[in-house]
Amino acid sequence: MTGTPIDRLLGYPGRDPGCEAGFEQLDQYCDAVRRGEDVAHRFADLLTHIANCSACREDTEGLLAVLEELARPT
Fold first, then answer.
1. Half-sphere exposure of 45 (CA within 13 A, CB side)
2. pLDDT in tens for each of the 74 residues of the chain?
3. Is 13 helix (H, G, I), strand (E, B) or coil?
4. What distance in Å separates the CA atoms of residue 53 and residue 35, rounded to the nearest whole number?
5. What are phi and psi of 57, to 5 degrees?
6. 59: how many CB neighbours lie within 10 A of its CB?
7. What pTM does this model have?
8. What residues have CB less than 8 Å from 64, skipping those under 6 apart?
9. How far is residue 43 CA from its own chain's centroid?
10. Hey, how many other C-beta atoms are within 10 angstroms of the C-beta on 72?
11. Quick one: which of 40, 39, 29, 13 has its CA closest to 67?
């Protein structure tokens, strides 16, 4: 996720459930992304957290990359 430097510094507005609560939804979120679902409404709080937390953003990007790799035919 990108944004202006001030957004990255101050955080994005919205409800941020934090790392632990976000981690509980991460697998569901990644599955929904892979299915091409519109995740903006269903995972709004998680998306706010991912935008605010670089560690969780990296975990999410990594999990999506692994799932993509596993889905490729061998």
1. 12
2. 456 666 655 566 677 888 988 889 999 999 999 999 999 999 999 999 998 888 999 999 999 999 999 988 87
3. coil
4. 24
5. -60, -45
6. 17
7. 0.76
8. 30, 33, 34
9. 9
10. 6
11. 29
Tokens 């990007």 sit on residue: 61
3-class secondary-structure state, position 73: coil
Residue with tokens 């509980």: 24
User: Residue written as tokens 């999506």?
Assistant: 64
What ranges in 1-74 are assigned the alpha helix state H?
A: 5-10, 18-35, 39-42, 44-52, 54-71
pLDDT at residue 7, as a whole number? 62
- Which residues have a Cβ under 8 Å from the Cβ of 16 and sit 6 or more positions away? 45, 48, 49, 52
Q: What is the pLDDT of residue 16?
A: 82
The CB density around residue 15, as the number of other CB atoms within 10 Å, is 9
Structure tokens at 49: 């957290």
